[in-house]
Amino acid sequence: MDVRILDPEKIEARSFEVIEQEMGRHSFTPEEWKIVRRIIHATADFDLGRSVLFHPEAIRSGIDAIRQGCGIVADVQMVQAGINKTSCSRFGNHVYCFIGDRDVARRAKAAGLTRAIVSMRKARKKLHRGIVVIGNAPTALLEVIRLAQEETIIPALIIGVPVGFVSAAESKEVLAKLRIPYITNRGRKGGTPVAVATVNALLGLSLQG
User: Fold this and answer.
1) Which of 9, 22, 46, 80 is the most buried (most CB within 10 A)?
2) Which fold is adopted by the domain 47-206?
3) Where are the domains positioned within the chain?
4) What is the pLDDT of residue 3?
5) Which residues are catalytically annotated?
6) Is 205 exposed, middle or buried (0-12, 13-18, 19+ CB in 10 A)?
């Protein structure tokens, strides 16, 4: 490999070539592969890429929601910051994150709950028919699932890829059993880079055609 490649577009193109070569054969659809490839590009983790799961309607539902100007709710500010705002502006998508709000911290402390749970409760009106992107907080994902099951607050797409040792893998297993469109992965791995790569790849697909 030429270590002197300095042009960003050439670096990305060469990276994608390496990913295609090393990944080999897979069962993802062309649209799914664009998302998985972006995840691998962000993490350099092929095992994580192979663990990604798609609800059959995930990509279509996500694209339709984006093109209709849906809100996007992030679990943490790092995820919010990483989402491509230029792409969002094409369809009027606003990215929300409430975990740092003072009222969320106050209510969480009073109730003995995580701020992630309370932030999703605060976001309930944005969640319905919107896209929720969770990369860090399993309790946020579990709360979104509860809101869907108990309060009929149904997102157009749940991107649930929290990382961690407590409830991360388990929350994703629950998500993968839902009828609601989702993108997730098996196991403990995940995190901000995975969440951001997923939603940005989906935004890119929304801009095509």
Assistant:
1) 80
2) Rossmann fold (3.40.50)
3) 47-206
4) 59
5) 41
6) middle
